[in-house]
Amino acid sequence: MQRAALRSPLAGVPPALARPLAGFAGRRVVAGVSGGADSVALLLALHHGGVRVVVAHLDHALRRGSAEDAGWVAALAVRLDVPFQTTRVDVAAVAARRGWNVEDAARRIRYEFLARVARAHGADTILTAHTRRDQAETVLMQVLRGEAVLGGIQPERGPLRRPWLDVGRQEIEAFLRAQGQDWREDESNADPAYTRAWVRAQVMPQLEERFPGLEVALARLARYQAQDDAALQGAARQLTPHAPRARMSLAVLRRWVRQELATARQDVHAPQVEALAAALQGGQTAHLTLPGGRDVTVTGSHLHLDSAVGAAPAFSLPDGWTLRTRQAGDRIHLPGGTRKLSDVLTDRRVPRGDRDRVSVIVDENGAVQWVGLTAPIWAVGARERTAESVEPLHAAMGEALTLAHEAAAAQEVPVGAVVLGSDGAVVGRGRNRSREHADMTRHAELEALRNAAATLGTPYLTGCTLVVTLEPCPMCLGAALEARIGHIAFGAANPKAGALGGVTDVLAHHWGVRPTVTTGVRAHEARRVLRDTFAALRANGTGSG
Fold first, then answer.
1. Secondary structure letter of residue 238 according to DSSP
2. What is the pLDDT of residues 345-360, one digit of tens each?
3. Closest Cα partner for 414 from 542, 543, 531?
């Protein structure tokens, strides 16, 4: 290869190359320099722009001439009088030992090396010279692999920056020629055994003959997809535990599932993400074993890691009831009729190996009343017999339902509410009185909150629980937030004005206080009083008021 001497001082850097580098002037950065045209141009441009650059070169030991590349880059660093650091790693051996493909191993090892160099030199930024051609090739490979997001190469990741993703190869080569600077050509770039080399040498040229603007188009696709994905990721991060999954798009749910599993440091395959998201949206039960053998279950529109088998009940048993594991012939009475417990466990997709560990409670006649899955199953009427010991919310909702029936008798919208103090005692009660006072703000929640504030002698109800038969509207939820309520429990969803997921989820935004939310408490009874009341009003011709 004929080498041309460096011109000194360097000529100006073209604006298209200089603009993305303007923010690095005067800073200490590490530049990954392979010796190819892109990375050599990046080094020259940084040096010309007054950036305090450290050159880092990884010898992958994948071909006989790799050591010569390292020496060539070292000589260039000496001529520019910039720090240089290199290391040699047998990438092929590492890939074989860890079960990676060679290209993946090279990428991982290269970024680990660049991070070490940055720490050693006190640099907070790492720059690589990926260009628009690299971006286009990456997007095309993502299409061929069927990846969910065609976002290509990300411009930023932690301390890593790729400032030239919108720069074309022609501009880079023109800059190098103007500087009289040559570069190294890696012969592996023409080896079709490597996927990227095959795409670059054989696939892209044929596609560009038919679609001359392909590189620009693929780079634009990557930019749009990355922007779309960022918006959907943001929506997934705002997804609160109580938000109805049936109302969420699969695009958001897939990202939410990935986020949840990533937080749990759990790998997952794309088909598993798709299956879990579909089960969440459809209110179905799904059980999967993830890579590494960890179980994950979707049931009741909730995602549960590990086994679907729950713990023993945390409540006292009524007289005559017994806690045990399942037995042959066990049956449970559900809203749809009496069923074999074995069939119920099959429907819930509880693994066969876990079924004999499931806790069940049977009554004095041997009928199953409770099944200890992650989302417990209750027999019809069982909750009522254990209301005091199972959960205070159940009993409190009973009082709210009584108030809802009182509202219905007065031809009001049948909504009742109570407020529980921090000790679980009722400190406020209310029912809808909008017709009575000709005031559409006289909702049950507002009355209960006012009563609680008067009882406690303070407008702030921190530590209290608002229990209401119908999902609060934005006005009532706003009042609860102003009162600093710590917990909200409701029965029926409110598809017309619900502020906790029925129409919108107000708590997805930050208001300074975010109460916990429990949904579906005695929901069947809450829906029934609404349905019966409105049916009676329509029959009487009085409307729903």
1. T
2. 888 878 777 888 899 9
3. 531
